[in-house]
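Hello Y.,

Per our agreement to keep a running log of every chain we model this quarter, I'm adding this entry. I've kept the format consistent with earlier entries: sequence first, then predicted structure.
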Amino acid sequence: MRLLFPLPRRGRPPAIHHRRRFRRPPPPPTRTFLAAATTSRRVSTTASTEQCAPPTLALLADHPHPAVAEFPRAGFSRLGEHPLLARAIHGLAVRLALRLSAFHRNTLLAFYFRERNAAAAALHLFDEMPERTPSTWYTAVSGCVRCGEDGTAFELLRGMREYGVPLSGFALASLVTACERRGGWDEGLACGTAIHGLTHRAGLMGNVYIGTALLHLYGSRGIVSDAQRLFLEMPERNVVSWTALMVALSSYGYIKESLGAYRQMRTEGVPCNANAFATVVSLCGSLENEVPGLQVASHVIVSGLQNQVSVANSLITMFGNLGRVQDAEKLFDQMEDRDTISWNAMISTYSHEGICSKCFLLFSDMRRRGLRPDATTLCSLMSVCASSDHISLGSGIHSLCLRSGLLSSVTVINALVNMYSAAGKLSDAEFLFWNMNRRDLISWNTMISSYVQNSNSSDALKTLGQLLCTNEIPNHMTFSSALGACSVSGALMDGKMVHSIILQLSLHKNLLVGNSLITMYGKCHSMQDAEKVFQSMLTHDVVSYNALIGGYAGLEDGTKVMQVFSWMRRAGIKPNYITMININGSFTSSNELHSYGTPLHAYIIRTGFLSDEYVANSLITMYAKCGNLESSTNIFNSITNKSVVSWNAMIAANVQLGNGEEALKLFIDMQHAGNKLDRVCLAECLSSSASLASLEEGMQLHGLGLKCGLDSDTYVVNAAMDMYGKCGKMDDMLNMLPDQAIRPQQCWNTLISGYAKYGYFKEAEETFKQMVAMGRKPDYVTFVALLSACSHAGLVDKGMHYYDSMSFVFGVSPGIKHCVCIVDLLGRLGRFAEAEKFIEEMPVLPNDLIWRSLLSSSRTHKNLEIGKEAAKRLLELDPFDDSAYVLLSNLYATNARWVDVDKLRSHMKTINVNKRPACSWLKLKNEVNTFGIGDRGHKHAEKIYAKLDEILLKLKEVGYTADTSSALHDTDEEQKEQNLWNHSEKLALAYGLIVVPEGSMIRIFKNLRVCSDCHLVFKLVSLVLNREIVLRDPYRFHHFKGGSCSCLDFW
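Predicted structure for the entry above:
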């Protein structure tokens, strides 16, 4: 049976801003139905209706088709799966001018609204109805919302109120759904709030449907507190309401609260349906703790719903997220019915675990069984291919997307963008993204995240700006990624701008956003802002506390770290391994080790964290930073199965404490243990060579990096450049520099630092200006290097200018290392009043470096008052700091306070604090020649001292007289001169003049600062003997040539 003639078509319904005009139904005709039927077959459908099926249509009850047979009783509601039959019956009624009852008309209206592209027909039918019951209006409103005709739905609401039609929860719930779809965040919320108020006035707040719809709306807009309050006010709550609340809470990161709602629902005796279980199982999969998920799984089994495909699929996904692959496999194998989602869930489980081979085996099995992969399938496969190892397989999936026509799917392109960016192919990701015909919010979020992952913060923030110019509404994930782009030193102003946008969009209450803000401010060293955000947050989780602890740990503020840790414990938040690692990284002195580090170690043992390899490695680093290498070694030796990370931590510990030779021995042991060389290990070993000034070993390590394919790694390149610079091979360092256009930030910093150590301020400043001109943003390390260059050159005005421009121009918060440079600069020039004022006003608390620098300058300028105060502050921080006693002793000596010198040295013996002996060395081929003060243990000692006598005679010929101000013992002048002439660097120089061929540079290294007399001797030797000499002490290089030094006599 077919429709005899088509229904009249109406144009597209007017937009929401047009007022829709509803015709009043015409008055009832005077003739009866029978009279009209016998006199004319062409009566309009606007004739009045009866409440029962017309006699002719009643005959359909005997029709052989069951759906048609039920028509007199069920109307068009049973004919949804048979649209041709429904249209035929409608056509019959029109052709025979049969009057349909109000019930039949309403079911016919609902039928057309359900039909694809038939909304215009439904609205035409509505307009032509002779009588509209309240159900007619309700059906039209919900039908328009279902068809996406939201504007017409709201016009219908106005019509209902105009005609006095009572409101219903069913219609208002549909309108709330339309509000949820509104493009603008504020517009949709305002619209929903208006419907909420209308519901209140109509006394319909007890309606569970509209209450649930409002829950969905507030949840989708992130107004979680309003959703919770609405839920509590609902007089009736069914399983759908509870599920809506759980979705609202979990969508914005309130996982624990969502689980609490589930437990409360069970307590109130509300039985779960499949949808509720699928929801709560899914959110359990996002927890680190697997216990809640396993408990919910047991509830599912007790309820008997585990055979429901949707529930089983959710359980497989949860098991996959929890890493319980075998449980997921067992459940998958036991499923009697599997849909595409089932296969996708299992493939996703393997993908989550990085089991690429099983992903593709299951994918092949799926295709053999005749199931066609969808976008989700391919996205899971792309996820497991998101690495450089499997990108070739990912490219194959890309080709499959092209062949299957799925490349038009936004979801698929989003996954491809993520895959290529994660595999390091950012250009391919960019090409796909910027050529998309349509982008959703996930597209934008993925691209912003891709830029952040590839350290391209500038483009990430530009992309955020372009997103804000579209109709898409950024969400918490958008800003979590965007804040990641600002989570680097020097990006504080960018971070604050993003924070202001977050406040405008009212997303600051979101837990994920709050945690990201704390992390950003912490990385930018703006801990006052970080703590403000923390205190303003409604709820905190372990990530919140870890982010705040990590920020203070980055500033090495152990006291504040322990304060936040105590807050965490009082709040009942259980710390995790990241908490322990962050806290361990905050301690830097023996005093902090005694007060905090050792008790924390005991806590770690008691709580079982010591079994975690990462925590054990952090303890190795903690003890090393606090100067206790013995404890670091003991912890390292206690680790049964040492990973590369453990070896790296121990190598770094030795490098940090100046045991470069032991670090290189550990490197050899690590290689013998079968561990693969990685970039971190290679960089640490290069740092070891740099600290030893061992050029040959450094070059061998660099060659090993080339052989292992690590030569292009930014981390390794930077470490190799630093090694060449510290070994006095500035030319080799410059030869390694990448092109300016692609030069990483670290390389710029290393170059500026290299120039600073040589005293080349002009070159350092010019490099800084080039870097800024190339669009690179200076960071924390950049300014440490630049201020160090100012300090070595004695340029106070330049130093203060760049210090001030850090925060005001470049948005870099001053840190302790910047302040040390300024104090050192002022102290070197004897401007102690300014130095003291600066220390009082600087934005961070002074540490041992500040007081040590001030004490050293006091010794140089013989300022006893300032020096004693600095020594007092230094010893308060660490009573066993040998440098404090040595510098103070030297200060007394320069002021001829020999009684105080003797008392201090006696006290050092009492507390078993020993002065580090001076040592100088030079390396020839594979032999390191080491010299101490007055050392006669060298095999060529006689030749060396004979050479010294020869040098002395030649220097006296040009007017040399010893600078005895550097002699720190109470002896006569002759003995002072003799002691000075036996300094280790002079012995090394004499040996270098013997064995290093003329025309070759002599490279000497010393573990302490060179004294003024040795500095003078080296200058004169370079002039009289025409030799080029490089002397490196712990602070800088001295390049002697033609009677002058690169430091310009300021060091």
